[in-house]
Amino acid sequence: MLKNAKYIRNAAPHIIPSPEPLDGFKSLVPLDILRRFNGMSDAELATWPELLAVKQTLRPRPELAMQPRLFGDPPFKGTLHIVKLIFFTEADGGTITIDDSDIATVLEYTTLAAVPISAYCSQYGSNRLEVSPNILQFGPAVPNALYNDDRVRAMVNSILEQNHLDADSSCIILLNPPGMTNTDADPADGVLGYHDKANSPYCFVNVLGAGLTVADRRDLYADSLSHEIAEMTCDPDASIFNHEVCDGCAGNCKNSWHNFFAGPSLSLTNPLSYLQSSKTFPAAPFTYFIASIAARPHADDCPAPDGACAYGPPIPPVTVPGQAQVWPVTRSSEHLDVFVTDISGNILTAAWEPDFADGWHGWWRIGNLVAPQGAPVHCVSRSTDHLDIFVTDSSGNIQTAAWEPDFADGWHGWWPINGGRAAPGAPVTAVTRSADHLDVFVVGTDGHVYTAAWEPDFADGWHGWWRMST
Question: pTM, whole model, 2 decimals?
Fold first, then answer.
């Protein structure tokens, strides 16, 4: 709807002027037309000659006319930033917001859901979704409980500026609390969210209640949030020429498919992660769900066929630079693990053991850390079935992560090692000199060699760094 309204405003400001009225675009053009404008026939617009004239200008450039359609810039590569909005209503001097515990739940959900969303969206091009662990706050003052998308865009730009965020690699997630109404996304009109672009992409989501859970069986936020994140990922510029990749399966085409997952989806090749796709909530337990994303050959279909909605996440191919080092380790007899950094800077691992009749298992991404492509990942096994890995990330921070069988939720980390810094991607060499004792070595930014150490008796974590004599 917003894409259509903004196209009309740009092409015909006498129909939709700027600034937008507080009552929203629907106060100027009927809501049904705003929803369907891009796909309406000339006959359907015959009683609206001015809009028909605008529609006839709506022709994609020849080089963009391809099927299935995805126009504009490549998919999103960057960080999702969750924002807690605290509205100060001038009419009564009150505040309207979402409880901190509910915001924390949304962050937990988004961190889980970003992994399969990114995998599904990889059908439409290479993307990268990271989720910032920091919840941002923004406190707009409003005359009453109404505002519109013009105000939303201004808020997004202010959030970017106040938090010194890179507009090219940030997406702002705005969670609208119950009691506030964005007149361009009024739940009473059946609008639960949308995505657009101000100085950066953003997703606007109506939260429909309190007491949120990650599984969201009450359907208060997860459907619309995952829907908008997926469509933003494929279309960060919010181009009117792009089809919405969720609508055919879970949106405006009267379809309602969802994909259900158990546990963290850090391993998308693990069949226990993806459970099923369904139009209804299953009786069996699940951890979370996301809105279904149409398979690429059916991106134009409204609705998409069931088979294009009900499928597990595609496994993106693993591509590494030719010079990348693959680091192997054995953590116990007949168990092998290997590690590498791919061309997108993701840290990946794969594993083999004799019980794997089908060969190697993996690849799995370890957390959301990003390192320079091909950066070496050093690994040691300090005791049976305990793995510790080390890498210097893209910001030059020396980082570590760990795995052991008792970690039911997969790898733990990443953790920076005591503020240590080196050139981005610099090798971090690790050794275990006895059971559960670790020492690491690196060349610092000043060209000197430094070391740090860890053992279980260090209650305060890593010790170091110490410069080695030269």
Answer: 0.70
Within this chain, do residues 198 and 261 fall inside the same structural domain, yes or no? Answer: yes
Which residue, of 263, 281, 308, is where some domain finishes?
308
The pLDDT tens digits for 420-451 are 999 999 999 999 988 889 999 999 999 999 99
Distances (CA, A) of 343 to 92, 317, 363, 422: 54, 11, 14, 20
Residue 365 lies in a domain: yes
Q: Is the pLDDT of residue 419 over 60?
A: yes
The whole domain housing 13 covers 2-59
Which residue reads 């933003």 in tokens? Answer: 232
Residue 98 pLDDT greater than 90, yes or no: yes
Higher pLDDT pick, 323 / 198? 198
Q: What is the mean pLDDT of the chain?
A: 89
Residues 148 and 50 in one domain: no
- CATH assignment of the domain containing 446: 2.120.10.70
Say whether both 161 and 106 belong to one domain: yes
* Domain assignment of residue 179, yes or no: yes
Domain count, the chain: 3
| 48 and 22 fall within a common domain | yes
pLDDT band at 217; cut points 50, 70, 90: very high
Same domain, yes or no, for 43 and 157? Answer: no
Q: Please indicate, yes or no, whether residues 273 and 342 belong to a single structural domain of this protein.
A: no
Question: How far apart are alpha carbons 306 and 126 in whole angstroms?
Answer: 25
- Verify that 276 and 379 share a domain, yes or no: no
